[in-house]
Amino acid sequence: MAVATAPDRKGIGGSIRRIEDARLLSGRSTFIADIGRPGIWEVAFLRSPVAHANLVHLEKPAGAEDRVFFLADLGAILPIRADSQAPGFRRSDYPAIADGKVRFVGEPIAICLGRTRGEAEDLAQAVLVDYDELPAVADIAQSRNPDLPPIHPGWSENVFLESRVDVGDVDAARAAAALSLTRRYRMNRQAIVSLEGRGVVTYRDERTGELVVYSSTQFPHVIRTALAECLGMKERELRVVAPEVGGSFGVKNNLNPEELALAALTRRTGKALRWVEDRREHLIASAHAREHRYEVTVHADGEGRVLGLEATIEVDAGAYSVWPWTAPMEAGMAIGFLPGPYAITSYRATALTCASNKSPLGPYRGVGRPGACFAIERTMDEIAAALGLDPVEVRLRNYVRPDQFPWKSAGGKTYDIGDYGASARAARDMIRPERVAALRQEHAGSDWRIGIGYATYLEQTAHGTAEWVQRGLPVVFGYEQAEIHMTADGMLVMDVPIQNHGQGLETTLAQVAHDELGIDPAQVVVRHGDTSLAPYGMGTFASRSMVMSGGAVGRACEALAAKIRKIGAHLLQVTEENVRLKDGEVVAAGGASVPLAEIAMAAYLHPERLPDTVEPGLSVIASYRTARDTGAWSYGTHAVLVAVDTGTGLVEILDYAIAHDCGTIVNPMIVDGQMMGGLAQGIGTALYEEMPYSEDGQPLASTFMDYLVPGAPEVPRARIEHLSIPSPITRYGIKGMGEGGAIPPPAAICNAVNDALRPLGAAIDETPLTPDRIIRALMAPQAGEAGA
Amino acid sequence: MKPAPIAYVRPDTVERAVGLLSESGGEAKVLAGGQSLVPMLNLRIAAFERLVDVTGLPGLRSASDEGSEVRLGACVTHERIQTGDVPDPSNGLMPSTASRIAYQAVRNRGTIGGSLALADPAADWLATMAALGAAIEWVGPDGPGSCPAEAFVEAAYTTRLGLYDVLTGIRIPRLHPDARWGTYKLCRKTGEFAHAMAIAIRQPGGCRAFLGATEGAPIRLPAVEDMLAGLRGWDASDAARLGEAMAADVAAAGRSLSDVHAWQSRTCLARAVAMSFGAAPPRLGRAA
Amino acid sequence: MQPIELIVNGERLSAAVDPRTTLADFLREAADARSVHLGCEHGVCGACTIVVDGRIARSCIALAVALDGAEIWTLEGLGADPVIAQLRASFHECHGLQCGYCTPGMLVTAREILRRHPAPSEAVVREALAGNICRCTGYAGIVAAVLHAAENLAEGEIPPL
Predict the structure, then answer these.
(1) Contact present, A537 and A480 (Cβ < 8 Å)
(2) Residue C83 with chain A: CB contacts under 8 Å
(3) Judged by CB atoms within 8 Å, which residues 121-160 of C form the interface with A?
(4) What mean pLDDT is reported for chain A?
(5) Which domains does chain C have, with CATH numbers?
(6) Mean pLDDT of A646-672
(7) pLDDT score of B47 more than 90
(8) Mean pLDDT, to the nearest integer, of A702-719?
(9) CATH class entry, domain A289-465+628-779
(10) Which of B10, B38, B104 sits opposite C62 (nearest CB)?
(11) What is the arrangement of strands in the sheet containing B196-202, beginning at the earlier edge strand?
(12) What pLDDT shows up at residue B205?
């Protein structure tokens, strides 16, 4: 990791230390479980133990009728309905709690209240439920099995959507190809695992008349809109607050049935309620991620140039379409991103979004792209291997060139700018492939096989209006707002509707304010996550906040700066053109200055000191959209050196290098931290994390004993190089970068493992690359004599 | 994930603990560190009416060096074994094993007796105690009892302990000063339970070799032991013969391992044997 | 309910507890120790790590009733501890935290790592942190922070275990 430099620069580009650290290091900040109310009830959900069943009889425990609630007890309430505009999409209604049928293990059936969580769980155990079990759809291969019952009423097959892309001339590519090869890849289902689970606290505020919903969420305003719709309430009757959020990564970016259930029950009963998700609930009943299967056929010329690409993509989206993303999001992203950074012009693909009796699939860091990157980057290595070429060289022959931007991809995306080859060359220089031969020599005759792997990724960020409209979602997240106030003593308060959950946005937005206003970041307070504080906005997801909220804050500060300069010039008795903002002061050309505090005092407490043309007060609300609304595109290349232990099947990462471009970097320390965090999750996908299901739909990893999350010994310190080509379409040239670190590690690591195993005739194309899978690959008939 | 209602009692003698267990008619459970039991209670995958906490019983926390053997009370923590706070009869095998159980915070409270009594096949002490030829001691309604560690486990999570017996201690014979040992376990990540495990001890008067993490009781490997007795050093070319001996032993024990598990167990065994001949534990360093 | 008496962060605390109450829940409720975070409730993630009788422990898999008579420290009570003070400074300097949920457990664990290994190598720090899951940082900043703290603590500032 690049060592963060001393905080000599406070604005954009400086590695200033984080403003939010102090309260988190105290351990005393307020997460959802820390929020109480007098008389609050603890909630436990009775969750389905079976994958697919009609509920033929439900019975509350005797004496607990006022502490156990079924759907009918919640009053008028609509199910969560995440409809895609795509033609042929099959709708699923996701009820707050089960409406006579359960469709996955973990689906809520009853809300149980206790004075302690233990007492609430006692009640959940005592509810009598008669399940009339139905056959479960537990595998993609079963989604079109006519013998299995439809998961949702009226469905003719258990498929949400089938979509197709056909551009260019794939048949001509096939005819012209010197090499055509077909490969199958699997990226298995995983859980998302924020360290803090989800959670909701609801109560009625009698003074304001609001139903208050605290939720560990990434987008409070959007949740308010959705809750209002499902509950039939006015938005003004609801206040949604996200407290300190202990990690999220997408899992807190959905309207959850639990949020709706608690809000409805508080509305109905007036009771204050608290539900804190436990780890087992998180693993089985929070949204899951990935579960992609690919069959990819590539046609290339003799030099490894791709002439055409064909693919069948299948994604198991689980039992319900999640709001607002819709079930086809994963497969849609995968089909759009499969061509990756390559100038592929002939592309034919089918994307199938299957339904199953599993927990619904939701957004998780990377969304669709880790799978697509895995498939295309494995394929590039297979081309290289088949032709006896260097894998980086094959990529260099295929990348979209710097002079080709903006590039309209075969997947229907518009790439803004970049130099993909520069990232690949930089990553190769860092990993030093020339040392592999010596390492192999050194370990010859041992169980260890050395391999090297690369993967280049694209990360579309700060998607604008056009992108979301194209996807056909219920909400178009095309902009962001910010409202800023200078206080009467000269500090800056910025109210933003995004939600910081570890990204350091309080710090980086303050850095933007510093550049616009000359104010010390320590004098800036960023408040977020509360519909009562900030104007409407979309929240923090899809690597959008630094671009979008940074843009909104920048525009607001720019407007405020103009007013401050006007007042400052007046107080200094010079013309406005002759002053500038610096170090917390308005400074005149001659050197005379007036501090912000004095200007604020004039603006609020001494209007007699203001020029006639200036209104009192120092508040601005601004909104921001990118100049072109097809996204700012970060990208990079990961390179990894591994040793595969053929005796056990373990993979050890010996070295990891990242060369990436996220445009203008606001805070290099924070960017490195995001990149390392993403890498850790990508390593989890590659080597450790899996949520398997049994044939009858039982999730098989319900604790951290079964679901392995990488720890400190499993995650190497990567070396990171920043290329930093500013985006032409965003304020400051910033590109988002929160997800990129998680996208290519499965591809790069799997490429390295295959590079190591290739001399043994063994191949593996399924994540996670567990010891057992690697040993089975070594045992496969085509594998030769192996080490053990 | 909170425990169901449960009663708790802390007796002041082992005999009282046994009495409490008997009175409860099988609905009580011994608590001895709780590092595995309390998670099971939190998950409600185990339910008992009463916990009988023996962790603090002085006799169960003590350790004594009795010359040819060491006796460890059942509630000696992994950490005390790890740091040498209790006598080590094993030429370093036990401290080394203890230091690789789970994580420090768990080692600080988890106990050797609690681990043995739970008999999770993937845990370390079952195979280690069997390999060291230790004896497990308990007290039950009929008084004290004991058996060789090798015969203690009947199946996964099932031991010779009766419902009302309290495991009180372990007697571990002192290894010969010239004894050399090796262990190797396959964990997917640091501190995780083992997926395969082997222990080899070479010493004058008889070698010992066991596989752990077998989904059942540890498997003793007599043919491997014979082979070890004849080895003068370790050469990778011996691996094939070792693997054949292991396979014969597993079959002779009436047990079976999946192909993958057998492959990995063979590796663990070969590395354990190599380590007993002084090979460094095979671990690659991260290149800079 | 059963009576217990223990010392939490230097203060004697008497309470009647339901025997099923975990130490973590007891500390959060009876001692307002909300630095004790619950991340798994089965002893794997380390977010609830505290100090019991001088050694770190997982408060989610201890029962409060069984800790009668124990001396307990949570992060709340360690404000004056020089090792914790340095660790806080080092975590801030080295970007050793993002969302902050694992942070209290990391700090308490790191304190014991330094007490067992006053001048640890990176490998030792990583192994010793293996039982504390961080989902945000990829550990680089945390490992750097523990090493930074070790370098910046003066001799004698780390009390032996």
Answers:
(1) yes
(2) none
(3) 125-127, 129-143
(4) 96
(5) 2-77 (3.10.20.30), 79-152 (1.10.150.120)
(6) 97
(7) no
(8) 97
(9) alpha beta
(10) B38
(11) B180-186, B196-202, B208-212, B219-220
(12) 87
